[in-house]
């Protein structure tokens, strides 16, 4: 168990390091000099050179990488070129929107999808099963930003129940903030829930075909008892994997959905930073998102070990 | 048991049939758009702007008075082109990598799998946004961005399928008559996994359509005046109160296309490889 865990943690760290090299390399080698971009077209050569000096752009690449990496480890993500504030402060401010958004949608999709998946599997071939899976099939095909537009039209334009966009900030009350996250999280959750419902159903059907399920039924347990006590736990492993993967989709999905609702989250931050060539902000946000994905996948890997004790003895 | 199987294959055939029909219609629509569209999309007709669906404009007009049906027809080209080429990139690089890893095993295999994990750690859409934003928006960069993320998908699928084939008797027989790893891969492994690769190709194609729509929605895909479905949705956003039909139809075009491809993929899966039915 311990060696399995430490092996996973080690791989996670190596992946993160490799990711940091890629992020740094891609963004530092890009065409366009940030100093020149910041100063505009009419800047003199001297001014550009002075700014390059000040921001450390004339240092060797390797040195700048280790400088950046060292900073990351101590929580210093550098200073934004355009906002002139520490990147970490920007990230903290924006993550307060994106993280709740991603978590609400994850919770929403899980709470809706797993019961539907179980229900569909337990009534396989019924009208309810077929229609649930038909809806899920359509749900998978719906782009979340389009669904977001439809939600805005129905709930903001026609019914005027919820705001069409914007965010008042947590400090101005919980309810207004939650209210402005409802439509975005529903939009994000729909495609994810559709995938999850399908995975839950097929995983459960796979397990229900196993011999030990027949044995449990043969010894006289009710269908219900077999389903909840024997099948569900074993069917959860693939479901867990998908939930872990979905977290990364949700984080990425916020980029686009935040644009629909004008939410000041990480997605909009990174998007604006890219267009303004504020590379240090982009680097910071991307490494945070990648680290989150790696940590979540690590947790999923470790939770397998809890769900499936056979992994304890492996490796 | 017999009855269940025949019902299953009927459903499978039905989704294949519906999926293939939808895909064909979209393909014909895109092809037709090169020769004919109901209206020209390059001439603006401000008098007829924001018209709801009518006899003359089946799906209405946009804020410049352009016919939405014509826009959707031409927009399908960008979606199909980007999705197709990015699948070709992913398959063209990913499949050989996966086959190589399966044939060699050991260090090559381990490195490829770690590299896969690395790419999977980047939320695909985020990286696509990053790539297109850095190298400039446009259809070509969107293709590269989406294509890169297809590489590990195909590599993983090809490796998994090839590993399962390498232990089969006919491969052993091929070894016994003195064929090398490369020869066996080309003669025996690849033909036997074509099904799985075609199915995966369909899935990635539909994901490519969605990704292209997302990128062009945020302004990083095909550039105006070239119409694209995502771009149309972006333009519809500010008009949502005035002309909801502008948002409705391009979105429906995306949903129908993706649904068609997914049904086609599901149908193919059921027809070609019954064992894989529940993998998704």
Protein model, in words:
The complex is a heterodimer of chains A (315) and B (280). Chain A has 13 helices and no strands. In chain A, α10 packs parallel to α11. Chain A has 315 residues and is mainly alpha-helical. The N and C termini of chain A lie close together (9 Å). In chain B, α1 crosses α10, α4 crosses α5 and α5 packs antiparallel against α8. The interface between A and B is large, with 51 and 44 residues.
Radius of gyration of chain A: 24 Å
Q: How would you sum up the major sheet of chain A?
A: none
Q: Which bin fits the share of residues in helices of chain A?
A: over 70%
Give the structural class of chain B.
Answer: mainly alpha
Tally the beta strands of chain B: 0
What letter string, H or E per element, gives the SSE order of chain B? HHHHHHHHHH
* C-alpha-based Rg of chain B, rounded: 22 Å
How do the helices and strands follow one another from N- to C-terminus of chain A?
HHHHHHHHHHHHH
- Outline of chain B: elongated
Counting DSSP E segments of at least 2 residues, the number of strands of chain A comes to: 0
Question: How confident is the prediction overall: mean pLDDT of chain B?
Answer: 85
What oligomeric state do the depicted chains represent? heterodimer
Which blocks of ≥5 consecutive residues of chain B have pLDDT under 50?
1-5, 276-280
Largest interface, counted with CB-CB under 8 A? A-B, 51 and 44 residues
Strand and helix layout:
The complex is a heterodimer of chains A (315) and B (280).
Chain A: H1 2-28, H2 34-39, H3 45-55, H4 61-73, H5 87-122, H6 127-141, H7 144-158, H8 174-208, H9 211-218, H10 223-261, H11 266-275, H12 279-307, H13 310-313
Helix pairs in contact in A: 1-12, 5-6, 5-8, 5-10, 5-12, 6-8, 7-8, 7-10, 8-10, 10-11, 10-12, 11-12
Chain B: H1 2-35, H2 68-104, H3 106-120, H4 124-134, H5 139-166, H6 169-176, H7 181-192, H8 194-217, H9 229-237, H10 245-272
């Amino acid at each position: 168990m311990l060696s399995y865990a430490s092996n996973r943690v080690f791989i996670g760290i190596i992946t993160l390091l490799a990711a940091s090299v890629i992020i740094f390399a891609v963004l530092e080698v890009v065409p366009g000099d940030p100093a020149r971009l910041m100063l505009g077209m009419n800047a003199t050569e001297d001014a550009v050179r002075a700014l390059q000096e000040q921001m450390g752009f004339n240092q060797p690449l390797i040195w700048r990488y280790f400088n950046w990496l060292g900073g990351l480890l101590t929580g210093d993500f550098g200073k934004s070129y355009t906002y002139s504030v520490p990147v970490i402060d920007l990230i903290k401010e924006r993550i307060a929107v994106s993280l709740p958004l991603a978590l609400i949608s994850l919770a929403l999709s899980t709470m809706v999808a797993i019961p539907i998946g179980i229900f569909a599997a337990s009534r396989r071939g019924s009208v309810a099963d077929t229609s649930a899976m038909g809806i899920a099939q359509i749900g998978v095909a719906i782009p979340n930003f389009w669904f977001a537009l439809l939600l805005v039209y129905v709930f903001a334009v026609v019914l005027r129940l919820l705001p069409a966009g914007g965010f008042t900030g947590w400090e101005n009350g919980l309810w207004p903030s939650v209210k402005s996250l409802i439509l975005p999280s529903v939009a994000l959750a729909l495609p994810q829930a559709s995938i999850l419902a399908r995975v839950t159903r097929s995983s459960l059907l796979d397990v229900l075909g196993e011999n030990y399920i027949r044995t449990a039924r043969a010894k006289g347990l009710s269908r219900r008892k077999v389903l909840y006590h024997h099948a569900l736990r074993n069917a959860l492993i693939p479901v867990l994997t998908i939930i872990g993967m979905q977290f990364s989709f949700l984080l990425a999905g916020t980029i686009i959905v935040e644009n629909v609702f004008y939410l000041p989250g990480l997605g909009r931050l990174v998007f604006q930073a890219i267009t303004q060539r504020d590379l240090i902000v982009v680097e910071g946000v991307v490494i945070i998102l990648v680290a989150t994905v790696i940590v979540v996948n690590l947790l999923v890997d470790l939770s397998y070990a809890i769900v499936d004790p056979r992994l304890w003895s492996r490796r | 048991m017999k009855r269940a199987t025949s019902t299953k294959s009927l459903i499978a055939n039905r989704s294949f049939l519906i999926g293939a029909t939808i895909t064909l219609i979209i393909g014909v629509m895109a092809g037709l758009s090169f020769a004919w569209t109901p209206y020209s999309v390059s001439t603006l007709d401000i008098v007829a702007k924001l018209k709801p669906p009518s006899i003359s404009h089946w799906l209405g007009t946009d804020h410049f008075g352009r016919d939405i049906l014509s826009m959707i027809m031409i927009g399908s080209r960008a979606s199909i082109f980007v999705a197709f080429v990015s699948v070709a990139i992913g398959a063209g690089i990913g499949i050989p990598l996966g086959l190589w890893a399966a044939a060699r095993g050991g260090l090559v295999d381990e490195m490829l799998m770690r590299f896969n994990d690395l790419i999977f750690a980047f939320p695909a859409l985020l990286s696509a946004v990053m790539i297109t934003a850095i190298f400039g928006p446009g259809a070509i960069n969107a293709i590269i961005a989406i294509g890169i993320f297809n590489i590990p998908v195909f590599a993983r699928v090809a490796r998994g399928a090839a590993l399962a084939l390498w232990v089969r008797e006919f491969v052993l027989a091929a070894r016994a008559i003195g064929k090398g790893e490369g020869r066996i891969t080309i003669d025996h492994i690849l033909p036997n996994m074509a099904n799985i690769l075609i199915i995966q190709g369909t899935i990635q194609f539909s994901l490519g359509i969605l990704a292209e729509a997302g990128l062009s929605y945020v302004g990083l895909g095909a550039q105006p005046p070239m119409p694209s479905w995502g771009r149309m949705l972006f333009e519809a956003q500010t008009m949502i109160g005035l002309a909801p039909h502008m948002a409705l139809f391009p979105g429906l075009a995306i949903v129908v296309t993706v649904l068609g491809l997914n049904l086609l993929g599901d149908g193919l899966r059921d027809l070609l490889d019954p064992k894989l039915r529940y993998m998704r």
